[in-house]
Design goal:
The protein is an alpha/beta fold. The chain has twelve helices and ten strands. The longest helix is centred in the C-terminal third of the chain and has 18 residues.
Length: 301
């Protein structure tokens, strides 16, 4: 299972904090650390409102602010990306980022990222998907706010563009996602209906959902990571601390090990125990030489 620590915008626009998130992701055993690449000027209008969870989790001293103003403070500057990518690679962890426009995706492609992550906001952006698919980079596609028909259309667009290096992540776009809205079995539906590798972009609290997703076939897990849940910013409260993230990685590794091969055989350790635990035939009472063994003079112990 490929575990992605979603740093997102939890660096609050600060390169030093971003590097500390890389350190944390590497220390907890994640395979990759992922950021977000966007330019508020091309992403949102100046008057665009924030989502409810953003208003709840992030307020300024001045009170209400637009989505544009918030993102302006949170953006990871393009000049930070090369240094951050090098830093992650030095730490032995894969650098990924979610682009929010074609220009952002082109920038990441030219930067040399090993895969492109498509956020749930672009699941239905078919022209965009067609374009980036032609670059033949592996694509990780999140599917929050989508039904099966929409995801099918998106996957077909990517495949028709000549790219079958694809993992589709089941996702519920709610922060945090309540248990009744997780619907992990939908991940199996995606795998069955689309014949595709699947994974889980997790916005739940705790470790139950990501561990369950492993049992249900996830090959990729993505979950938010923060240095401090009390930091100022929209995603910190719905993210995991490094200690919590480490516990998830530990549980996921145990879960995938425990799933095993699916073959029903006995292990070598069981063979030794079987010698003393399994019953054997013994005589039920004294049997004289020449007597025939029968159900009456034999028993098991």
């Amino acid at each position: 299972v490929f575990v992605i620590a979603e740093a997102g915008v939890n660096h609050n626009g600060d390169l030093t904090l971003a590097k500390r998130l890389v350190d944390a992701a590497a220390s907890v055993g994640a395979d990759a650390v992922k950021f977000q690449t966007f330019d508020p000027d091309t992403l949102v209008t100046k008057e665009a409102a924030k989502a409810d969870y953003q208003n709840k989790n992030e307020t300024t001293k001045e009170g209400w602010e637009s989505q544009h103003a918030m993102l302006k403070r949170l953006m990871l500057k393009r000049e930070y990306h090369p240094e951050l990518k090098r830093y992650a690679e030095e730490k032995g962890i894969v650098f990924l980022s979610t682009p929010f426009s074609l220009s952002d995706a082109e920038f990441l492609r030219d930067l040399g990222v090993s895969a492109l992550k498509v956020g749930s906001t672009d699941t239905n952006n078919v022209p965009y998907l067609r374009t980036i698919a032609r670059w033949k980079l592996p694509i990780i596609l999140s599917t929050g706010m989508s039904d099966l028909a929409l995801v099918r259309e998106s996957v077909e667009a990517i495949r028709k563009a000549g790219n079958d290096d694809l993992v589709v992540l089941h996702c519920t776009t709610n922060y945090p996602a309540p248990p009744a809205e997780v619907n992990l079995r939908a991940m199996q539906t995606l795998a069955r209906e689309l014949t595709v590798l699947v994974g889980f972009s997790d916005h739940t609290e705790g470790i139950v959902a990501p561990v369950l997703s492993v049992a249900l076939g996830a090959s990729v897990i993505e979950k938010h990571l923060t240095l401090d849940k009390e930091m100022h910013g929209p995603d910190h409260k719905a993210s995991l601390s490094p200690e919590e993230f480490a516990e998830i990685v530990r549980a996921v590794r145990i879960a995938e090990s425990e799933l095993g091969t699916g073959e029903k055989n006995l292990f070598a350790s069981e063979q030794d125990i079987a010698k003393v635990a399994r019953k054997s035939l013994v005589t039920a009472h004294a049997v004289k030489k020449g007597q025939v063994f029968t159900a009456e003079n034999l028993t098991t112990k």
